[in-house]
Amino acid sequence: MTDLVVENLTIATRDRVIVEKVSLSVIAGNILAVLGETGSGKSLIGSAIMGLVPSGVSVSGRIIINGRAYDAGDNQALRSLWSTDVFLLPQEPLTALAPLLAAEDQVSEQITAPASLKHAREALSAMHLDPEHHRKRPFELSGGMAQRVMAAIASVTRAGIVVADEPTKGLDADRREVVADVFRTLRGSGRAILLITHDIALVRSLADQIAFLDENKIVETGPAELLLRDARTDYARRYLASDPATWERRPYARSTTPKIVETDHLSIGVGNRVLADDLNFHCHAGHISALMGKSGIGKTTLGKTLLGQATPLGGAIRRSSTAGARGFQKLHQDPTRVFSPWQTLGRSLEDLRGLPDGERVLDEIPGLMQRFGLRRDLLRRRPHQISGGEAQRLALVRILATKPKMLIADEPTSRLDPPVQEQVIRCLREAADEEELAILLITHDHDLATAIADRRMLLVAGSNSPAMLKDITRDNAS
């Protein structure tokens, strides 16, 4: 039996169609992944199923749940199915939980049978949440732990359908694998799962079926095994080819260019708490060094320390004498925060005129924009009017115009869709090659690091000791 069917779903505002005549279905014990770029409408499909489409938006079509048909625009009727038939795993699970209630109590509230607390603990353990965390409240949990609590709640409700919206967004590799295990458990219990995502690695490991959404329409759908191997449409092929796991591994080559920064037994931390100790590494001109490690281990703190925004707790940092005052720059995770929200992008760039060599810097902008595929008319817009990929490339243009020697790129593509991520990463590689720019790429994506970086380093924590740095450049080298 097909548990969830979406028929001819159309969602529109007064001036544009957001989703047009979308039809899809998923059966019990299966995962249907919906892949598409930001703005394609994929999250709104999940909102429509849950009856959460905002007011002022018109919705037509049918949602069929367990054989019962509902008008896709009837939010009240669809919301009445929450927890009994349909369960939502949201992008931000911490905000969906009761803030002052312990994890096990949030699960037991959904259980009417005797010994509900015992069953709740069993459900949390089944989702790989250790007993020591069962009594914790949401603010004491990590994002991955909160996701497991939500999944445990889903497993004890009667809901046979789970809608998951970007469940791995912003998670490191270890936490993404935990989330993947959660979905395997839910699928094994017979749930029908609609997985809305742009995480190709997650789709490769989990999906039974895939639907590609482009320009608000389903352009291709079918068995995951078939589409991952031999997609028919140009869009699906381009989307899958933007996965770093499919890129050619960057070959190992010994550094011959000058060192831009070098550390000597560096110790970093927050306050007096040491996060990482005895760090010895260097970054060369024209090379990308990837820094990986679990969330919270100290990657961002190391970047801030190299930039001079945090004070080392010990050891030394030696910077090239050629770097100058603007020699070290940062490419942020959220590029829209770099530009003033109430000014056009062109006006924001005009601020560079105040630099000692401001006229030269501004003269560099047009050529760099052309090189990175950015149209000049973008400068007449404000940050919220352009895509994340355009904003990140323009942020890189702004940095390169000042002629830095080193760039700290802190998760610069983690919020971008794969095709857009590929554009930004290739711009970074070109900047390293053409400008002889040293880049420290902070990332949780091992596939990306393997494909793009000349050197790969991993921060590894001991059981009761600060993190240490391990060079893994030649691990599994071909």
In short:
The protein contains 16 helices and 20 strands. By secondary structure, it is of the alpha/beta class. It has 2 domains: 2-246, Rossmann fold (3-Layer(aba) Sandwich), CATH 3.40.50.300; 259-471, P-loop containing nucleotide triphosphate hydrolases (Rossmann fold).
Description:
The protein has two domains: 2-246, P-loop containing nucleotide triphosphate hydrolases (Rossmann fold); 259-471, Rossmann fold (3-Layer(aba) Sandwich). With 478 residues, it is an alpha/beta fold. The protein has helices spanning 42-50, 75-79, 93-96, 103-108, 116-126, 143-156, 173-188, 200-206, 224-230, 234-241, 299-307, 345-350, 358-371, 388-400, 418-435, 446-452, and strands at 2-12, 17-27, 31-36, 58-65, 68-71, 86-89, 161-165, 192-197, 209-214, 217-223, 259-270, 273-279, 282-284, 288-292, 314-319, 328-331, 406-410, 438-442, 455-460, 468-471.
